[in-house]
Amino acid sequence: MMECLFCKIVAGEIPAARVYEDEHAIAFRDIDPKAPVHVLIIPRPHIASIADLPDSLAGPMLRAIQAVAVEAGVAESFRVVTNHGAEAGQSVFHLHFHLLGGRRMAWPPG
Ligand code: DGP
User: Fold this and answer.
1) Would you state the torsion angle of the CA atoms of residues 21, 25, 84, 71, taken in this order, to the nearest 10 degrees?
2) pLDDT at 110
3) Which tens digit of pLDDT belongs to each residue from 24-77?
4) Which residues participate in catalysis according to the annotation?
5) Which of 92, 93, 100 has the most ligand 1 atoms within 8 A of CB, as the residue to mutate?
6) How remote is the CA of residue 105 from the centroid of ligand 1, in Å?
7) How many domains, the chain?
8) Percent of the chain scored above 70 by pLDDT?
9) In a domain, 110, yes or no
10) What residues make up the domain containing 83?
């Protein structure tokens, strides 16, 4: 899936401000941040969305999110969002979890 933008970031072909990586996942700052902390956590393999996430990666992705929250200094309070499908707001079709923090969050999201 080398036409995939986030696959290219995983491969290092497109630069990104990486803040975390392990054997399963990488995390980097969102190019258009919606909060003081806005990091995207993505699996290394190409997985289109959460609907295709295999059991073998579900736990590791959540652990990566926890680790990024600690490293970003927002472990006390943060929000995790993933959009599945264009109607829900997904624009990049490589699974990513938005980790947002550093400000008060409103509910419900738009
Ligand atoms: P979503 O709309 O849920 O699919 O979120 C996609 C996010 O990806 C959006 O918040 C902007 C971010 N994004 C798109 N292109 C790039 C890029 O080239 N670099 C980085 N760091 N983020 C990107």
Assistant:
1) -40
2) 83
3) 999 999 999 999 999 999 999 999 999 999 999 999 999 999 999 999 999 999
4) 96
5) 92
6) 20
7) 1
8) 98
9) no
10) 5-101
